[in-house]
Design goal:
By secondary structure, the chain is α/β, with parallel strands linked by helices. It has one domain (about 1-120): Transcription Regulator spoIIAA, CATH 3.30.750. Helices cover about 40% and strands about 20% of the residues. The chain contains four helices and five strands; from the N terminus they run ββαβαβαβα. It has helices spanning about 25-40, 60-70, 85-95, 110-120; strands at about 1-5, 10-15, 45-50, 80, 100-105. Strands 1-2-3-4-5 form a five-stranded mixed beta sheet, with helices on both faces. β2, α1 and β3 form a beta-alpha-beta unit. The protein is globular, with a radius of gyration of 13 Å. The termini are far apart. About 25% of the residues are buried. The mean pLDDT is about 85.
């Protein structure tokens, strides 16, 4: 399960994985993000806010995740990973092979700091 909320004014998508990710999660998120990108030309940043990464429901969920990244990474300038997951420490190193966005990691309780970083206030 993947909940997401688009702050249209800030151009920020807050993504909260709440269970194993499915292909429908990424299709649902694209239904929100794609019209916004068509309207504005880009998405300032997603904030991935998760205590620990829940994995994928199945192989189809993993494939849809990669498709979502492939289809959207050129329209995103920054990515904030707000997590206490052990994956968070090396995720940016892996992600730089797939995306051009600037990536920063914050502890789970520092969501406001991540928002400040995205806005350029920090």
């Amino acid at each position: 399960m993947l909940s997401h909320e688009l702050d249209r004014d800030a151009g920020v998508l807050v993504v909260r994985p709440e269970g194993p990710l499915s292909s429908d999660d990424f299709k649902s998120m694209a239904e929100v993000v794609d019209p916004y990108i068509l309207e504005t030309g880009s998405l300032k940043a997603p904030i991935i806010h998760v205590k620990s990464f829940p994995g994928w429901e199945d192989l189809t969920g993993l494939v849809e995740h990669f498709k979502f990244v492939r289809d959207h990474h050129r329209q995103i300038a920054k990515v904030a990973l707000v997590s206490d997951s052990k994956l968070a420490s090396f995720a940016p190193k892996i992600a730089t092979h797939f995306v051009n966005a600037e990536i920063s990691v914050f502890p789970f309780e520092k969501l406001d700091e991540a928002r400040e970083w995205i806005s350029g206030a920090k």
